[in-house]
Amino acid sequence: MNLPRVGRTKDELLLLLVSGMATVVAVVFAREAAPDPLGLWLATAAALALALTGLFAFWFGGAARRRLEESLHAESEAVRTLLSAIPDGLMLVRDGEICSVNRSLCELLGYEREELLGTRAPFPFWPPEHRHDVEAWHADLVARGELTSELTFRRRQGDRVRLLVSGCVVDDHGGPRHLLTVRDVSTSHRRMRRLTELAARDPETGLLDRREFEERLGAAVRRAIQSGTNVTVVLADVAVHGRVGDGVFGRPEAHLAVEQLSRLARAGDELARTDDGELGWILPETDTAGGVEAVARWRAELSEIGGVRLTAGVCDLASSGDAFSLYALADRALAAARRNCPGATEQHVQAVLPAHRAAV
Question: Cβ–Cβ contacts within 10 Å for residue 105, how many?
Fold first, then answer.
């Protein structure tokens, strides 16, 4: 905050000038009109009194000015301290120019106060790729008078940060000013993403749950169709010492199997718990034969864990046509494997051909 300089008032200077002129006039008049020593002495004393009056007025006026300056300076420091203590960033813009910022804003954006004061739009913290959005927000603020939205700003180091920006238009004698408060919401966004991710996980295995699996399967199918590639789904029962279904994932051997399978997943593969004792895989850029080979590798790795058996059904997009059919046909192949040979792999083929059991 810049204080206006409090100078000598016009009244003080005029009083000093008048008293000086009166002193000169009084001395000249005394010499001309008072030839006797007593009259000359009285006239001179009156002139000196006028001069001293002007000097005292000038002195005490200066003291009052200094006290006023000190009071305004103390008030300015108090306001600056108060603004610096506010955790949100504050910025005051007048006529498109930043005229005041607080410490929190400087720390948030990584700029020094002097680097921001006096700058005009586009401000240095506006990302070039988001400039249109920020300009539109300011135009909307002028039209509405108050506005709160999330905007992306650029820190001095170049990284982007998502901020909650609230603004209001304040009218004063110098023209309208924009008062903006800025709050970092990137941490809360990361927390929300983490909570969303945890909500999509099965609490017992830590894998994706069925709902998230189906959503990601739909996304994988859309990507495969757009790129002209294939995608395969594997559904598998995990049995521990012959036990299947409910309660299987509570066994230590099943936990070891899940950990082992998670390590075997490729980048882009999705592994989920789709039912009691059932796992699901999404294998991008893989056909049915590749899915069968993958199950064989997984089964070989799980052989090190005693008592664990894997029964699987496999289907690819080329044999199904869409995400819903892909999941349903993989589930049908799994049901055939359960019925025909637990511990084996069944793959779905075109409807004109019967399903057959893959070599294990």
Answer: 24
